């Protein structure tokens, strides 16, 4: 079964992330922070290509709405998703996002991000998506660029792959360590039960010996 085409989404105020949700694992969260440091706070829409994924960005009224999606997930669908997220966030929090602390809305709004990511991931029909925001501006004029344009000078996109590989290796080591820890705890519990059993047996033996006398 193919995974959700929208892998990651967030709402931020400049570099302050208010809410985020990831449908997979990887180092894309660190890449989005690099992007947040570079983009202007003026109203705009843009897309950055990164290997087989695209970061779609909508900046509106000081807030940034961003998602990372697979390259075959259309731009119109991606910006329809962001428009929907923007409307839901503003309807729920109003102007609170302009002063809120980092992750202040994450506990509640990350569920909304998750739900809408699943919804749009299943609604690939352009006509269905268009009905969510029928009067949305055409995306033909949205700037599309390579993500290396927003990274530090000389920093190559291979860094993303390397970091992802490192993350996978860390995940493998964590799973191995967890397995070893579970085994150690099982043996510790087993030894404790044997000790308790031995003590109980001794007590019962003493009691039976005393009764026999």
- The tally of strands reads 6
| Share of helix, binned | 40-55%
Mean pLDDT over the residues: 77
- Computed over alpha carbons, the radius of gyration is 26 Å
What does this structure look like?
- This protein is an alpha+beta fold and 213 residues long.
- It is built from five helices and six strands, in the order E-E-H-E-E-E-H-H-H-E-H.
Quick description:
The protein is α+β, with helices and mostly antiparallel strands and 213 residues long.
Topology (elements, then pairings):
Elements (H helix, E strand, L loop, with lengths): L5 E8 L2 E7 L5 H11 L5 E7 L2 E8 L2 E8 L4 H19 L12 H17 L3 H7 L10 E4 L11 H55 L1
Using brief descriptors, characterize the structure shown.
single chain; 213 residues; alpha+beta; 6 strands; elongated
